[in-house]
Design a protein that fits this description.
Layout lengths: L46 E8 L6 E11 L2 E8 L2 E10 L2 E8 L7 E7 L5 E7 L6 E11 L2 E9 L5 E11 L2 E7 L3 E9 L2 E6 L5 E7 L5 E6 L7 E7 L1
Antiparallel strand pairs: 1-2, 1-16, 2-3, 3-4, 4-5, 5-14, 6-7, 6-13, 7-8, 8-9, 9-10, 10-11, 11-12, 12-13, 14-15, 15-16
Length: 240
Amino acid sequence: MSLLVLIGLSCGGSRSATSENSAPVSNANTAATPSVSPTETASSIAGKYTVTGSNVDGKGQYDGDLRITSRDDVYQFSWLSGGKTSDGVGVMTGKKVAVAFTDGTDGKGCGVVLYNIAANGDLDGKAGYWGVNSAETETAKRKSGTDLAGEYEISGKNIEGSNYKGTLKVAKDGEGYGFEWNTGAIAKGFGIRQGDTVSVGIGGPQCAFVSYEVKPDGSLEGKWGGQTSKTFGSETAKKK
């Protein structure tokens, strides 16, 4: 886990979703526009959607619009709901998608990790950060624990292409799991498990996360929330 963000995740209790004219995902160091034009192919999740869902902690229902834009190795997620906007970054592995987002016209400071959980408990992860078009990879080898909770040794390649090593601790926390990486500095996150994957949001109290599954008809069905959520919200996105 590259230490672009170092604070634990939480989120508010109602959905804010970003206009389709939100700022493009760019290189975090140069603030340039994307190096490759956004692509929307039949095989990708990129496109325009209508969304319906329920807020965290039983705080009502919502609907709105979502645009997903391909940005090289990651996706930009931009919602508009109830006159409010939010924006985030997502990564996809197979039919699973993990997103971290925040209110406003960009998702600056938010990051997300999507892990596949192997039969032996090891984790194979892909991470993205808002403002960066490259993805990061990480492998976590289980050393102790049961189920997902436990201690791991990690190795990976960060977005600059450099290798890193460290440790990871995962602990059950309410409906989700707390994550703490140590690669010489500490990074924290919070995630939700769905089957053999776990989606982890990082970036501080302004960031929340969504864990989606891509359905055969191309729709996205997911859960969303944060560490302070007593119960997660749900969201269904159907392509226009």
